[in-house]
Specification:
The chain has 395 residues and is α+β, with helices and mostly antiparallel strands. It has two domains: 276 residues, Zn peptidases (Aminopeptidase, 3-Layer(aba) Sandwich); 111 residues, Alpha-Beta Plaits (2-Layer Sandwich). Helices cover 35% and strands 23% of the residues. The chain is built from ten helices and 15 strands. It has a seven-stranded mixed beta sheet with strand order 1-2-4-3-5-15-6, sandwiched between helices. The relative contact order is 0.20. It binds zinc ion (2 copies). One zinc ion (ZN) binds next to loops.
């Protein structure tokens, strides 16, 4: 049997175990940097395989080392859940009110445990180290604005890594289909808070003060004009305002307007330009007699999929289940902190179609769920690509 065929056979045999892991994790979700029981399960399973394991990497993360020496190929799974109350009536429903695996990170963790099983049992695993990165807190950053990937990198989890791969389940993509794009596949993300300052005053005497809602009206045009008139139209960018608040009653001009929004881009140069154009647009408030305060929060960088790693993922998928499983990828402006890892070593993340049924079950909603029958395929692809990378990086 060829290696892909062998891996797929073994992964298919693991299906009941993969589902059991996923359901245990799904029933007991933990928020970012609180993945204590999840990490305990991961450590127990890795140690049962004889894999050298480190705990509390990046706060609540776990690193497993299978094999040693160069090359080093890392595979990452995120472990955190979201502050959402599950609405699904399923046997494996979340047992923790208000917390739910609504992005599929339970599946990622189960799949990576499966990869560890597959590669441990593989008789002729290529030389080098496979490093299993069970990452905390992809969905949120801590008080110092660092997410799980950054914390794991700070703790040297990626030291010496020659390549890094990951997958993300996609509840919208047909089950069993796979998509992986070259180059930028998720966005740089920065969020901003703006306080526009005027003086406020009596609604009957607007001429006696500075009305920040009038400044807001001019500013909105300037802000939405950044993407339309200032950014090169061939470059990807988005600026959206999600929240505007001002005032309390009809006859009082507010003294302040609050805005909260997000900016997305692929290229770092565009990210910089968005930041500087935002500041420049805000100067309008001063021209009009008011003032502003800006707080910019730097979010995740854009995810860049290395074309060579992408090619290996496509070849592996084709050899495992046939070329028809590969569907074209569309880049999106969401954000994903795997991008920190794939900036340190050539890497790529692919999307694994896991649509459960006819109902739309979007990520981050109370009815999110996946088709568990895709778990073996995810494990087989990751294991196969890891072997290919080990061989490629060794030569
Ligand atoms: Zn998510
Ligand atoms: Zn996610």
């Amino acid at each position: 049997m060829t290696l892909p065929a062998e891996l797929l056979t073994q992964a298919t045999a693991l299906a009941p175990q993969l589902t059991a892991w996923r359901r245990t994790l799904h029933a007991h979700p933990e928020l970012g940097f609180q993945e204590v029981n999840t990490a305990r399960l991961v450590v127990k399973e890795l140690e049962a395989l004889g894999i050298e394991t480190q705990s509390q990497v990046g706060k609540t993360g776990v690193v497993g080392h299978l094999g040693s020496g160069a090359p080093v190929v890392a595979i990452r799974a995120d472990m955190d859940a979201l502050p959402i109350h599950e609405a699904n009536e399923v046997p494996y429903r979340s047992q923790t009110p208000g917390v739910m695996h609504a992005c599929g990170h339970d599946a990622h963790t189960a799949i990576l445990l499966g990869v560890a099983r597959l590669l441990t049992a593989l008789p002729d695993r290529p030389a080098g180290e496979v490093r299993f990165l069970f990452q905390p807190s992809e969905e949120s950053a801590d008080a110092e604005n660092k997410s799980g990937a950054q914390r794991m990198i700070d703790d040297q989890a990626l030291a010496g890594v020659d390549a890094v791969i990951a997958l993300h389940v996609d509840s919208n993509l047909p089950s069993g289909q796979l998509s992986v794009g070259d180059g930028y596949t998720s966005a740089n993300e920065d969020s901003f808070e703006i306080w526009l300052h005027g003086t406020g005053g009596h609604g009957a005497f607007p001429h006696q003060g500075i009305d920040p809602t009038f400044i807001l009206a001019q500013l909105l045009n300037a802000l939405h004009g950044i993407r339309a008139r200032r950014i090169d139209p061939t470059k990807a960018a988005a600026l959206s305002i999600g929240r505007i608040q001002a005032g309390t009653v009809a006859n009082v001009i507010p003294h302040q307007v609050y805005l909260n929004g997000t900016m997305r881009s692929f290229e770092d140069g565009v990210r910089q330009q968005l930041r500087s154009e935002l500041s420049q647009a805000l100067e309008l408030s001063r021209v009009l007699g008011g003032d502003y305060t800006l707080a910019l929060r730097h979010g995740y960088p854009a995810m860049y999929n290395d074309p060579d790693v992408v090619r290996l993922i496509r070849v592996a998928t084709r050899d495992l289940v046939g070329a028809q499983a590969l569907v074209p990828a569309t880049p999106m402006m969401g954000a994903e902190d795997f991008s920190y890892m794939s900036r340190l070593a050539p890497g790529a993340m692919f999307m694994l179609g896991a649509r459960k049924d006819a109902t739309e079950r979007p990520h981050h909603t109370p009815i999110f769920d996946i088709d568990e029958s895709v778990l073996p395929l995810g494990a087989a692809v990751l294991a196969d690509v890891a072997c290919r990378l080990l061989r490629q990086k060794a030569s």
